[in-house]
Amino acid sequence: MKGFQIIADFHHCACDDALLQDAARLASTCLEACAHAGLTVVAQAFHQFGDGCPLGGATGAVVLAESHLAVHTWPELRAATLDVYACNVSQDNGKRVQALYNSLYATFQPRQVQKQMLRRGDLNHPFNTVSGS
Amino acid sequence: MKGFQIIADFHHCACDDALLQDAARLASTCLEACAHAGLTVVAQAFHQFGDGCPLGGATGAVVLAESHLAVHTWPELRAATLDVYACNVSQDNGKRVQALYNSLYATFQPRQVQKQMLRRGDLNHPFNTVSGS
User: Fold this and answer.
1) pTM beyond cutoff 0.90
2) Which pLDDT band holds residue A54 (cuts at 50, 70, 90)?
3) CATH annotation of A3-120
4) What is the ipTM of this complex?
5) Which long-range contacts link B42-46 to residues 24+ away (Cβ below 8 Å)?
6) What is the DSSP string of A12-41?
7) Of all helices (H) and strands (E), which one includes residue B62?
8) Is A20 left (phi over 0), alpha (psi -120 to 50) or beta?
9) Per annotation, catalytic residue among A13, A30, A34, A87
C-alpha cells in the first residue's frame, strides 16, 4: 500500500468551457490521461450536475489498479480539484502519478494552483508532505 | 470548492476478512456509511481484484454530490487506504466528513492509523494540514 499522492486545487482554469461543464468530456479526458500515463483503469464513475448548477458542472472518479483519480469541477469559478494516488505493488508508480498530474495540469491550464504531495502507506515514514514542486 | 478532506491509512485492521477481500461487501459498506453520514451518492465504481491477489482485494470510489470517498484494501496486510472529501456548497459538510470517517474507522477497526486532514479550495488559507485528531 506504499504509494504517492498528489492533491491539487486548480484555480482560474483557462481550458475550454466543456471540460469544466460536461461530464462526458471530463470522463474521456481523465481516461485518456490515465492511459497515457501508463496507469490501468479498472472502473469509472462520473456524474453530470444539472439542477441548481446553471453552468453545469461535472464530477467523477477513475478507479485504477494502482489506486484512483478523482476530479470535481466548478465551472462558475473556473476551478477544479484533483486527487491522484497510485501505490507501488509491482513497480514504483511515482513517475506515473506525476505524469498524470502533469497531463491534467496542461489540459486544465490553471493560473493558480494549491498542491500537496504525500507519501502514503509506510509506517516507517511519517505521513507527511513530500517536498517538491 | 472550499471543503474538508481526511486522508488515512488503516493498518492492522481487526474487521472481518470479507470487508478487505470482497468488493461487493466493501461497496455496500461504503454506500451505507455515506448515507448514514448524510452525504449524497451520485455514482459509484468498485472493482474486485483476482489474478495475482491470492486473498482477493477490493478497490473503489463513491462519487458524492459533495465530492468523493475512495477506499482501497490490502487483505494480505490487513490494511486499507481511505480518502474522504466533501466541499461546502449549500452547507458546511465538515461534520459529515468526520462522521463518514468515524463510521469507516469503526468498521475497519484499525490498530494503527496514519491520518491527515486538509482544508481545500480556499486561496485565503494555506493549503495545509488542519490540526486535530
Assistant:
1) yes
2) low
3) 3.60.90.10
4) 0.91
5) B42/A47, B42/A59, B43/A45, B43/A46, B43/A47, B43/A60, B43/A61, B44/A45, B45/A43, B45/A44, B45/A45, B45/A61, B45/A62, B45/A63, B46/A43, B46/A63
6) EE-S-HHHHH-HHHHHHHHHHHHHHTT--E
7) strand B58-64
8) alpha
9) A87
- Which of left, alpha, beta for B25 (phi over 0: left; psi -120 to 50: alpha)? alpha
What digits encode the pLDDT tens for the residues B104-114?
Answer: 999 999 999 99
Task: Kindly state the cell numbers that stand for A125.
Answer: 515514514
Where are the strands (E) in chain A, listed by range?
Answer: 3-13, 41-48, 58-64, 67-74, 79-87, 110-120
The ranges assigned to domains in chain A are: 3-120
pLDDT digit string (tens) for A19-41?
999 999 999 999 999 999 999 99
CA distances in angstroms from B101 to A40, A57, B26, listed in the order given? 27, 26, 15
Nearest to A44 among B11, B45, B49 (CB): B45
**pLDDT tens digits for range B81-109:** 999 999 987 788 899 999 999 999 999 99
DSSP H stretches of helix in B1-133: 17-21, 23-36, 94-108
From chain A, which residues contact B within 8 Å (Cβ)?
1, 3, 5, 7, 9, 11, 42-47, 49, 59-63, 65, 67-68, 70, 72, 74, 77, 79, 81, 83, 85, 87, 112, 114-116, 118, 120-121, 123, 127, 129
